[in-house]
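User: structure tokens for this one?
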Amino acid sequence: MMWRLYLLAKLSVMLSFCCFSLYAQQAKIKIDPDRVIDQVDPLIYGSFVEHLGRCIYGGIYEPGSPLADEDGLRQDVLQAVRELGVTILRYPGGNFVSNYHWLDGVGPERKPRLDLAWHVLEPNTFGTNEFMKFIRKVGAEPYFTVNMGTGTIEEAQWWVEYTNVKEGPYYAELRKQHGFPEPYGITFWSLGNEMDGFWQLGHLNAEDYAKKAREAAKLMKATDPSIRLIAAGSSDFRPGADPQHWNRVVLEELKDYVDYIALHMYVGNPDDNYYNFVATPLEMERRTQIVKGLIQQVLWGSRRDRPIYIAWDEYNVWYRARAGEALRGRRALEERYNLEDALVIAGFLNGFIRNADVVKMANLAQLVNVIAPIFTNEQGMFKQTIYYPFQLFARNAHGVALDAFVDGPTYDTEEFFVGLGERTTKLENVPYLDVSVVYDPESGRIVINVVNRHRDQTLTTELVAQEGRFQGPFEVYEVNGPDIKAENDFGVERVKTVRKPDVQVSSARFTYAFPPHSFTQLIGRLVR
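Assistant:
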């Protein structure tokens, strides 16, 4: 008798576990085309080019290489950047810009300088005009950052004159003498880089930075009133730092001049905790909401009739190449990425879309070799794992962001460091399914982006149109690999985008099984 009771009890436990496991794998995504967040700005699909390591020299620019064109630009890199779909490129830094004097990099005589930020000799053979040649060949928007460290406000004004004024004043005529008769019309200008950081050359406190940036803004706007300015928001989240004080002071002082405030965030997985790591983009969203509140507070009662937006103009995974010799020299910051890193980048992009009402620009740092989706050597290049989710978003996720309802299993993280040197955080109720939805009301085209954070389980999910119906075929693209540590290399592509079989659907709901550790993009129509 006892033996039978034991078997029954054991069977009951097994059935309960199986039912729980089955239940835990179910999820639901509800999509209402009326729940519009805002237009997704194409500028969230930006990147960043800095004079650092092999990003420029040996990356995008390699005169004398059999792979380079007549301007010294690597043709294989140009093609990879075009295919990536980058919309805007920030230049020339980064920490580098706080001791960069743009006049050293134009004209026939270039002045080599010691790069004090990254401890190498900067030859200045690549500068403003070379960058603009690159920009025109890849079809991206230029975004310049002025030197608010060792530079002067007058120097910033001169640069706007050189690039944007057709003729007449000295620096416009100097550009013409250098062989570029037409102005570039550069719209986006950042007032310095990470000026709150103690590591920044010419570091200032919030009050002093705001005063200097305000006066630079006056001169720059007087030179070309059409430009749009980005204030340097806080990037210092170390224990004891007060990032919100910095942001509040900067917004108060610059609210009549700037169009964006820039935020930076790098995340990592030094403790090799997968679930903590893939949740890190949610901390970006938390910081976004805090700064969004500050913007609303500062603009309350203001005479300004235009909003101020957020530009996440530096973000990426960066923790391996962040100490010792990996920070210096021509091979600095050469991070190699794996599948879990790619899932984090997809999570960032989902987060930008979910905050489309306030996040109107983002720049993956950086573009080539240096913490980058493209990696080169003298013979060729390969696409790192993070290339593929970014490419899918940049190519396809255009329209309005919808506020999708996601119901499914969740988990809590441990207390952990989001980035090296930062304060710790703990995240609760992290959804295994991370979702964003982009919709075109006119055509009905819908793009559903889904990261399955679960390391081991497929999540079978019901997708429900709360108004109208889905109409297929739905194209399905998946970024995945054999395991979460899978990397790419020269001639080896273990993580990439794979076109899966289309999903045929013509109803208000359908089911899709999202594989473990994957990013999936579904593209179809939602008709009303």
